[in-house]
Amino acid sequence: MVNNNPTQDAVEIAIAFNSYFIDSVRVLTYIPSTGFLGSVLVNDTQPVFIIREVSESKVNKVISSLKNSKAKDVFGLDSTFLKNYKESLIGPITKVTNTSIGLGVFPRVWKSAIIKAIFKSGDPADVSNYRPISILLVVSKVVEKCVAEQLIAHLNNSPFTLHSMQFGFRAKHSTETANCFLLENVKSNMDKGGVIGAVFLDLRKAFDTVNHEILITKLSKFNFSPDALRWMKSYLEGRTQCVRASNELSPTLSYDVGVPQGSILGALLFSLYINDLPSVCTGSEVQMYADDTVIYVHAKSKQQAAQELTTVMVQVTKLLSDSCLHLNVKKNCLHVLHKEGNRSYGARWQCVRGEAPGGI
Fold first, then answer.
1. How far apart are CA 146 and CA 62, in angstroms?
2. In whole numbers, what is the pLDDT of the chain averaged over residues?
3. Cβ partners under 8 Å of residue 120, min gap 6
4. Closest Cα partner for 74 from 238, 260, 241, 208?
5. Burial class of residue 192 (count of CB atoms within 10 Å of its CB; 0-12, 13-18, 19+)
6. Among 12, 69, 190, 251, whose Cα sits 20 to 30 Å from the Cα of 317?
7. Burial 134-170 (b: 16+ CB within 10 A, else e)
8. pTM for the whole thing?
């Protein structure tokens, strides 16, 4: 049964899922404001990001570093196959990779994904109770990783870098250092008295709703060369997906927004997309790890913390809206921590549409 319509036909089920996954993103997309659009000139006096050709030894290392997976892409290949036969494949993959870089074109056949619908909870007959998992072409991940490593090196060795409170994709930073920094900062402020108010941002279909025009404009601010921007634009555009149900595939559908889920470049590109978020969080602390963000303040009371965070969230909501991103208002909650004696206490309130929670 799909959406209360009885069916056991795998193709019909796959079609229903594919239509839902595409349509659920389309209803969130809109024409962006002109605030983020426009070209930015390359600063030749500073390091410029240029995607450079790679050697066979680099491709060999990248293939070896891929996670083992038996998930089959649209050509029936997986990373295990690539590793088992890499001695024969390194040469051709290196040649195709360098051709892609040289032409500034990401091959169209690499832009097709197979989607697997994973049940979350609720009514199994309701397609909205499933989330999509993308299976991308395994060969495309080799090229992506080569480019991602070059981009990370550029960000870590030039003035055009990620925000200092972005703990993803930066040298000597990790989820562990992010957690330690947050805990130590919160503890230090709590020792001074008062309370800590925090909002952990939750975005609706964050990766799926990234606007390509805005992303390319933002990438140019990191001193991307015209050729690098052309390759990135080609990488993003013209993607298609189909859904696999049992052993059947739905017809493919195209989409023109978002960064590819399950990709190597996706999370990095999204981090660059929201790198300017801390600029609107005046009077608060911000900490990010890829698409995970927490905004927090040290205040004298719960009421003051709520008021200060509400003011910040108004600006955050506007910036996200201008970037074609959407807060999941039902999941963005105000968390308040305070200390009594030697013990710490916590509370949680729903924070809807930027309004301060009542009753505190």
1. 7
2. 87
3. 129, 130, 131
4. 241
5. exposed
6. 190
7. bbbbbbbbbbbbbbbbbbbebbeeeebebbebbbbbb
8. 0.87
